[in-house]
Amino acid sequence: MDPGLLAQHVFNGLMLGVIYALVAVGFTLFFGVMDVIKFSHGDVVMLGAFTALAVAAGLTGMGVTSHPLMLLGMLVVALGLMAVVGALLARLLVLPLRGAPAINVLLITLMAGTVIREGVRLFYPQGSNPKPFPRLLPGGTVEIGSFTLRHDSAILFVIGVAAIVGVHLTLARTRLGLAIRAVAQDPETASAMGIPFTATVLATFAIGSALAALAGVVNGLYYSEISFNLGLLLGAIGFSAAVVGGLGNVYGAILGGFLFAALQTIGAVALPFASAYKDVFAFAAVIVLMALRPAGLLAERSAERV
Amino acid sequence: MIAPVWPALVALLVSTAGVLGLLLAEQQWAVIAIVIAAGVAMLMATRMGWDDRIRRSGGTHARTVSGVAVALVIGMTFVLREHNFALLMLCTVLLTIVAGLGLTIQFGHAGVVNFAGAAFFGIGAYAAAVLANKTALPHPLVILAGGACAALIGSVLVLPLLRTRGHYAALITIAFGILFKTFLEVNDALGGPQGLKVPGFVLFGHAFNDPIAIDDETEWSFYLAYAGLSLVIAAAAYVLVRRLERSWIGLAFDAVRLDETAAAAFGVNVAAWKIAAFSIGNFLIGLAGAAYAMMTGFVAPTSFTFGDSLILVSIVILGGLGNALGLVPAALIVVLLPEKLQVIQEYRFLLFALLVIVILLVRPGGLLPRPMRDYSAGESR
Questions:
Q1: Band of the pLDDT at B96, cuts 50, 70, 90?
Q2: How far is CA B274 from CA A304, B112, B250, B252, B278, in A?
Q3: How far is Cα B349 from Cα B351, in angstroms, rounded to an integer?
Q4: CA-CA to B135 of 20 to 30 Å: which in A230, B59, B141, B177?
Q5: What number is the ipTM of this complex?
Q6: Angle CA(A84)–CA(A90)–CA(A96) in degrees, nearest 5?
Q7: CB atoms < 10 A from the CB of A72, how many?
Q8: pTM for this predicted structure
């Protein structure tokens, strides 16, 4: 294959990988502190994107035309609001079901996701149609041979990677990160050591949901279009990535996100059948991977796993 | 003291009347009134301890009560003989119950999660479409083959499912469900997004799609024949699941679900029982899918999405995980209500999701939680 084209596919794959990793990190953080899967996560991604879209419309209505300013406003509102939504979901649906079968938590958050999805479809103006997402990033390109690098994609990639590094630093270096890791390891002991359990859980859900909002905005800016049902597939992909990486392990989720994107890219360009089969290939590969490494690629603890 | 038979019979009669009313109601206020009445009756039954008396009476006189239940459903189809839509709804509810029975064996009894219910339903449906179009196989065998195909294709997932559990196992089935639907959409041989037409069911030369002419003026709905077919399948599946549950096989399933290590220590072959439960469950789901495809005459990938799998799972949890009887009210709520409540048509998924959330919060065991095993009661087994 032509090296330029190859580089193009690799970059597209990396870009997808960043979005997936942002979603997967949320799944794995929630699993870490509560041992639950919050399946409304994909729909929080979607809600974040729609919040940003609403903010953009509002700012345009108020006469703001500066793109960086609009972007800043969108990010602040979407991330902040989704952090609150995430914490609320945890407070109202996940914490009350502590001790109930895991399947109940999975189902109740799935239903919460349905409520969010249907809410956007019904109550956002013309919510059932795909919406154009404003192109707020500079649109130029850099051409190196047959490899075309769009400026906006490069910026999005950097933003995504920065967010992932930020999460890593938060977990590894801050007091909050220490509290999250302690609660993830052993909630009882952490409580005994004076770490507030509920507050830590809520903070974790807030961080994870803010990341979801960021993923939603990045996704919107990258594809220039969002729709109310983008959360279902993105949620399933994020969940797959988190599980393949090993639930509870942040680095596993990041690895899983990039791996899933790689599988999709390989399925689309490198395999003999039509590119429409890329998701079939990627999910089949996930099933095979789970059969080979039932505890995920980077399994740490051995609670639920085999 | 032997529990009297009448509480169960009264409960059956009242619920049949309610369902019949719901099926026939044309005014929105009537539908809403019936729904409210059902909710109040449910609450009263719990508060006043009637539910316990009904359960004991039903357990003691199992045969009589089941016989009456079947007779009542037959009576109901007869009342509805000229109402196409109501009969279609009734058949859909019955076949949904069959699929729910499959899921009940899988994760109600043996604890094997399956978030790809709609995919296995779809496998049965597509298998029926292909076999009925391309082969001369008699149609009852086509439906059985639909179930067999679902069980067979499901066996691909057996190895990864045996090696994982909990959320990891859930992911495998979710991935399979999404994979299956995407595959159907991009595959030309199976009709792609447009799907396939399915010929109607033919039994001993009688085409089920022909209306049943009684005399020159009266014609009974052709769905009457399908209602009979659905009822036979549903009754057989129900008996199978109840028998399995009560037998030593059911005990083995329960042991596997509750504690794999302990079960293995007592000599229960965990892997074998998980495979058995998964395959029997998929067989039932595929069976329901095949019958449904032949009834509606059409299969398309959009009917077998991840969302549809979730609806099946919520039926099983709403009814009370592991309780086959609970599937009946749950399937009625999930299948019938959105169709009848045209007022909420647009908002039905929203309200339905909220309803499930509320039930999970206030009644985590479901509408009819699975009762303890009781071998003492029963006139005969």
A1: very high
A2: 18, 7, 12, 10, 6
A3: 6
A4: B177
A5: 0.81
A6: 145
A7: 12
A8: 0.85
Sign, Cα dihedral of A195, A197, A199, A201: positive
Q: Which of B154-168, B252-266, B296-310 has the highest mean pLDDT?
A: B252-266
> Per DSSP, which regions of chain B are E strands?
196-197, 202-203, 206-207, 212-213, 219-220, 298-299
| CA angle, A201 then A203 then A209, to 5° | 105
The sign of the torsion formed by the CA atoms of B129, B130, B133, B135 equals: negative
pLDDT range class, residue B297, cuts 50, 70, 90: confident
Instruction: Indicate the Cα dihedral angle B185, B117, B347, B292, nearest 10°.
Output: 80
pLDDT at A214 (0 to 100): 93
> Is B166 part of the contact surface with chain A (CB cutoff 8 Å)?
yes
pLDDT score of B38 more than 90? no
Residues of B in contact with A95 (CB under 8 A): none
Amino acid at position A252, single letter: G
Query: How do the domains of chain A map onto residue ranges?
Result: 3-292
CB contact under 8 A, A287 and B172: yes
- Looking at the complex, report in whole angstroms how far the Cα of residue A250 sits from the nearest Cα belonging to chain B: 16
Nearest neighbour of B167 by CB, restricted to A232, A247, A291: A247
Residue in B164, B185, B321 closest to A290 by CB: B164
pLDDT higher than threshold 70 for residue B219: no
With CB atoms and an 8 Å threshold, state whether A306 touches B160: no
pLDDT, average across residues B173-178: 87
Top pLDDT among A205 and B5 is at A205
Please list every residue in chain A whose beta carbon sits closer than 8 Å to the beta carbon of residue B107: 103
Higher-scoring residue by pLDDT: A193, B78: A193
Residue pairs spanning A and B at CB distance below 8 A: 131
C-alpha span between B152 and B162 (Å, rounded)? 16
CB of B306 within 8 Å of a chain A CB? The answer is yes
Question: What CATH architecture does domain A3-292 belong to?
Answer: Orthogonal Bundle (1.10)
Q: Which of A110, A126, A259, A289 to mutate to test the interface with B (most CBs of B within 10 A)?
A: A110
User: What's at A216, amino acid-wise?
Assistant: G
Residue B170 class from Cβ within 10 Å (0-12 exposed, 13-18 middle, 19+ buried)? buried
Distance CA B273, CA B105 (A): 11
Segment holding B15, helix H or strand E: helix B6-24
Q: Are B316 and B327 in contact (CB under 8 A)?
A: yes
Query: Which residues of chain B are within 8 Å of residue A294 when distances are taken between CB atoms?
Result: 160, 163-164, 168
Name the least confident of A22-31, A150-159, B206-215, B353-362.
B206-215
Which of A45-54, B50-59, B153-162, B223-232 is the least confident region?
B50-59
Residue with tokens 């959009």: B302
The ranges assigned to domains in chain B are 90-325
DSSP element (H, E) containing A141: strand A141-144
**Contact list, B310 vs chain A (CB under 8 Å):** 107, 110, 114
Question: Residue B158: in which H helix or E strand, if any?
Answer: helix B158-163
pLDDT digits (tens, 9 = 90+) for A178-195: 998 888 888 888 889 888
Predicted pLDDT at B378: 47
